[in-house]
Design goal:
The protein is mostly beta strands. Helix content is 6%, strand content 32%.
Length: 881
Amino acid sequence: MSAPTRRRRWLTTCAITATTALLAMPASAASSRDNSPFGARELARLAAERTHSAGNVTPKVTAEDDDDGNEADEIAEGADQYAEARTSPGIVAPGAYGAAWTSLTNLPSTGGSWRNVTDLPYDSDDARYRDIDSNSSGGSGDVTGRMAAMAADDDGYVYAGSAGGGVWRSRSGGGHWQPISDRLPSQSTGALALDTAGRLWLGTGEATTNADAYLGSGVYVLSDPHHGTFSARTRVGGDELESTTIHELRFGGGKVWAATSEGVWSHSAKKLTGAWKLEFAPNPDYLPGGSLASDPSAAYKNIANDIAIDPKNPGKVVLAVGWRSGDDYNGFYTKGTDGAWTRITSGLGDLPADADDVGNVTFARSADGSRYYAIDQSPEQLNTNPDSGLEGIYVSKSGSPTGPWTKIADYQGLAADGSALTTSGYMPGVQAWYNQFLTVDPANADHVYAGLEEVYETKDGGSTWSTVGPYWNFSFPCWSIDPGKQTGDCNQTTHSDQHGVAVGRYHGKSFVYVGNDGGVYRRPVSGSQDASGHATDWTSLNDGTIDTLQYYSVGVGKDLAHGGVSVTGGLQDNGQSILRSNDTVMGSDFGGDGGDTLTDPANGCDIAEEYVYLAIQVTQNCAVNDGSWITDSTKATSYNVAPADNATGEARFIAPLAADAKNPATWIAGGRHVWVQTHGYAIRSGSEWTSVYDLGAGRTATAVAASGGKVYAAWCGPCNNQGFARGISVGNADGTGWHDITLPVDGTVPNRYLSGFAVDPKNADHVFLTVNGFSRHWTEGPGAGVGHVFESTDGGTTWKDISNNLPDVPADSAVVTPNGGLAVATDLGVVYRAPGRTRWERVGSLPAVAVLQLKLSPDGSTLYAATHGRGIYTIKVRDCD
């Protein structure tokens, strides 16, 4: 693409982590649309609209961007791949993460403590970084990681539940946050709810039904949420809801109801001991212990989305049950006179009863009981309509969940009401299976907020709608890239992709709080709008005291301008952050999703950042730019240097990228091929890459490493649990000596996802291998084997399992420390084996959060950990000994 085309915010992938188990959604369960890995490039049209409004600059579309797909396809594919790494070659039995957390906490600990280096504001509109591949000036402002659920009261207390970083509390109407769930074995939030007694209920396990959504450890209640913190002792009931996701918690008739990935359950809201009661599961044979529990489709055979309770008759309950991509059991259910749950087949009015039209559903009831509202995502629309998966938004004016229901919004109408999503192929509700919230103003039954990719508001019960929180401002006439302004003459908007909502009061004023892929935002309930219906009064509450950033990677290099180091990292849906040594606010120099990262240890402004699928960008000035590239393409300071596997779709969503440990100008990238380029950060074109080895059709690299010209590449193919296979190839950066390693069939190296290499800096033939997934005790699949860390002293020809006392937990990466020790990142924290030792220790004490990558500082004295839910942490290497 030519310089004057902004294109980074195409993909808003939902790569979600937490801790207690992984919900494995088979790839076959995803949308049946064209699964081109470049579907999100359709959003380049939005960028074209934006640049047109900036001065009639005509975009030049490259092969990378010219695509007929849809962003939702990329989201499903990226999510599937994240799950494959943890579930293949089979499915993971419930309780795997819980057992691993117990083992990890029982390990002896090293000295020292972790320090969070990203606990400061992260300004996605930082005016320093308005280069071609940044989304700065889009209007999201300060951001953090995804918020899955929100709750708020009338005393100024706000609660935010994150995807992988736990629950946070504000006592001041938002901001000045404190974590309140760090003692729990799961940091994944599914639902938050305040009951009439003021207690805060937490349902763990984020329920976006993604392939990479982690399960939780049950439901917890906090009787004094103003002051207390969650602990394992506050869990409600027994272990019935372990290893589930929880979409919603609802109250009625003295009970708390939970819509989970294993059906609908209820429990007394007064007596918190005793078992949960399974109210309804449409396919009980697929539940744990059932005859079909090991079936690959079991994870999505009993998905419940929400519960609606009649305010006039708490005994009348409607269940919304269904898998977002469609299944015969999808529909609405209620109890018949015989006490059995039966599907509602008629009488709902406009609200569909057919299984093909009922997918992910969210209910909301007005405080006075006069209205019920619902959002319905349609499997049929998801599978056939490239524009949207939204069936509609509905109201029951009787106040009864049985209706009759009237449709009050569809995607075409929302698109026409000030939306930024007006382009064919990406319109409101295209991700309605992932983005969804709904709430009613407690003071006005006709005042409703609906969240999809954007935030919508109606004040007249749905007769008219306004897009009060547009996706971004790039397509609007008020936008400009002026570095003196946040977003031109537009008002700030929210980050895109909405998940949680609450209404609360602070200092006597009512506010609506929304949680999305960029964190938490608020505006007054009686807020103002401009002539286009966009809110003029959004405030970001991501003040830096709340760090739930979801990093895939971290890079560290010397800050030549200010001393110290510059720290960068690739993030889920929040681009690439950059923190220079004198910064009090982080900036974003690349937008979209940030994958793997290379940073020159000698110069932290030399950066290569992977978007997804090996779409690599490079800069040699930290991508500092005032936006002048928009009228003069020669002033762009970052460059697209993707190798050819990007254009052919033969690379993984987050593909491996590495620099030779002995020569930082030699880079290795892995797709179907092993790619090498030797120009370092001076590379300016994808044509400068050379394929040194073809891993083979259907295979794709999962990890690469190089030292002194010797290259290691791990691959999988097929990569899902049907026929999963993996291997290792070894050769030289100059293209010589390449061969496949014959891995023994005895399981010495398990038939699981090979996630990373760590090469001994003193000997390139001495290499360590990390293995993801769970051992065969938990994984029902051929060759799952045991162990997570392996060692070779002969260049990968033979391997030895050195896992020893390492907990059975997915291992994600490793690094050899300068003293010869080995640090390993896992889905639950970091472990360390001292030189000359065989036993593992836990490094410091992090919450139960996935650590996806480890890097050393340029001088080797500090270890950096990229967590997928709690930002970037550091610890001194000497403290690990």
